[in-house]
Amino acid sequence: xxxxxxxxxxxxxxxxxxxxxxxxxxxxxxxxxxxxxxxxxxxxxxxxxxxxxxxxxxxxxxxxxxxxxxxxxxxxxxxxxxxxxxxxxxxxxxxxxxxxxxxxxxxxxxxxxxxxxxxxxxxxxxxxxxxxxxxx
Length: 136
Hints:
Elements: H1 2-13, H2 17-30, H3 33-36, H4 40-49, H5 53-66, H6 77-91, H7 96-101, H8 110-128
């Protein structure tokens, strides 16, 4: 399935979003979530490229939930503020330099993989004015 993974990345890089999704889905169908996690951003970015923003957001939320994140399915102002407060509390423990280094993490690092997934559906959230935007 390494070949399918490589094909998914190549198709995405060439702007062939539909092919990228097809190859990435083959990887996901045949590997565990942990082993297929690197192709999720390809699917999400490809869906965004195809202007399938609602599907991108839905799949992004789904994969984060399967990874153990509990996001409200219908965020309210209160739930968004709660998450933002918790995020602020966590982020305030780090310096600007430490936060900057998160984007330079190794692809094998779990935090980096999760950041890639969140980054991949952020654009769709912004484009459709999704209530999940502050959570992404």
